């Protein structure tokens, strides 16, 4: 059964997948392959989502962790500031239209992000799952979700769901089903169906309540 932290793991996987695509496009562009500018430029929206996510962690997850594992979250907050600096370096390289520096900055960003997410998944969120009660986990994840501006939610769904595998799609959708009012859930799943197109059939097979929902 999906738990609150599965929603965090899902978005972490979306970050990994998109950063891999952006990094590969930056490298190919530096090698002279044309037509990849739009993929590389996606890092700007990617970083917006990352900032919402990090802010939500600092607002809700880190205080919950501090109560059960003092001083652990401090290192992860330092990681967030380092990612802010890595984004500035990448932004400067792209703005200067320097393909080589863009590829270097993207590779550095990806490396640090991958290490940070791995530490969170295997350490920080393991502690949360082991030491924080499930209702409190759900409350913290709800606060995290509230950091996404409501008018940007359709953009978030359109970005995130195509990047997720079937298990993460199912987990995220089931968690939404548990926490959203029925009308909000219907609206959210309509956005999901639009985002993943023909792959909606597999999600509806896994969650039969979605069949014929729209």
Strand content: under 5%
CATH class bucket of the largest domain: Mainly Alpha
Number of helices: 10
Percent helix: over 70%
Assembly of the depicted chains: single chain
Structural class: mainly alpha
Largest sheet: none
Q: Write the element-wise H/E pattern from the N-terminal end onward.
A: HHHHHHHHHH
Q: How far apart are the termini?
A: 25 Å
What's the CATH H-level superfamily name of the largest domain?
nmb1532 protein domain like
User: Got a strand count?
Assistant: 0
In total, the number of domains comes to: 2
Low-confidence stretches: none
CATH architecture verdict of the largest domain: Up-down Bundle
Please state the CA-atom Rg, rounded to the nearest Å.
18 Å
**Mean of the pLDDT scores?**
95
At CATH level 3, the topology of the largest domain is Four Helix Bundle (Hemerythrin (Met), subunit A)
Inertia-based shape:
globular
Keywords for this structure?
214 residues; mainly alpha; Four Helix Bundle (Hemerythrin (Met), subunit A); 10 helices; 80% helix; 0% strand
Structure description:
- With 214 residues, the chain is mostly helical.
- Helices cover 80% and strands 0% of the residues.
- It folds into two domains: 1-147, nmb1532 protein domain like (Four Helix Bundle (Hemerythrin (Met), subunit A)), CATH 1.20.120.520; 149-214, no CATH class.
- It has ten helices and no strands.
- It is globular.
Give the secondary structure arrangement, pairings included.
Blueprint: H1 4-30, H2 37-41, H3 43-68, H4 73-95, H5 99-131, H6 134-146, H7 153-160, H8 166-179, H9 182-196, H10 200-206
